Amino acid sequence: NGVMVDYFGSQVPVSGAASVTVPDAKTILIQPWDKKMLRPIEKAILDSNIGLTPSNNGETIRLTIPPLTEERRKELVKQVRSEAETARISLRNARRDAVEAFKKAQKEGMPEDESKDGETQTQKLLEKFTKTLDDILAKKEKEIMTV
């Protein structure tokens, strides 16, 4: 969407001048609605410096996405870990809010044992979801680092 092309006098995203499909994980296929747009779209892609080289067969433009470099894979793993940490913080905040709600309810008349049970269940849920998050993170890291 960031690649703009001159379409009959106005700058529009490529998706505004062509059908953009993804036949597989490593290929983007661009089929202009007007064949005269093949060259301008190809030029816009080259000028955009997105690191992809268009292949024009006279009907469509095919972009083949190169495999990730080791450096880029490490950057993606860092980003995934950061997102996971944000999720962990959200889980802990939810636990804190629940514990505060139980304490408030206890002051308003909830029996102490029910309040403690609620806090215990909240802690168990936190541990369950943290483990699920860690499992998903490990799987995603492995997926990213697999060549």
Broad structural category? alpha+beta
- Percentage of β-strand residues: 15-25%
Shape: elongated
Q: Spans with pLDDT under 50 lasting ≥5 residues? A: none
* CATH homologous superfamily annotation of the largest domain: Ribosome-recycling factor
The topology string of helices and strands comes to: EEEEHEEHH
Lateral arrangement of strands in the main beta sheet: 3-4-6-5
For this structure, what is the CATH class of the largest domain? Mainly Alpha
Topology (SSEs and partners):
Elements: E1 4-7, E2 10-13, E3 18-24, E4 27-32, H1 38-47, E5 54-56, E6 61-64, H2 70-107, H3 112-145
Antiparallel strand pairs: 1-2, 3-4, 4-6, 5-6
Helix pairs in contact: 2-3
Summary?
The two termini are 27 Å apart. Helix content is 56%, strand content 19%. The chain contains three helices and six strands; from the N terminus they run ββββαββαα.
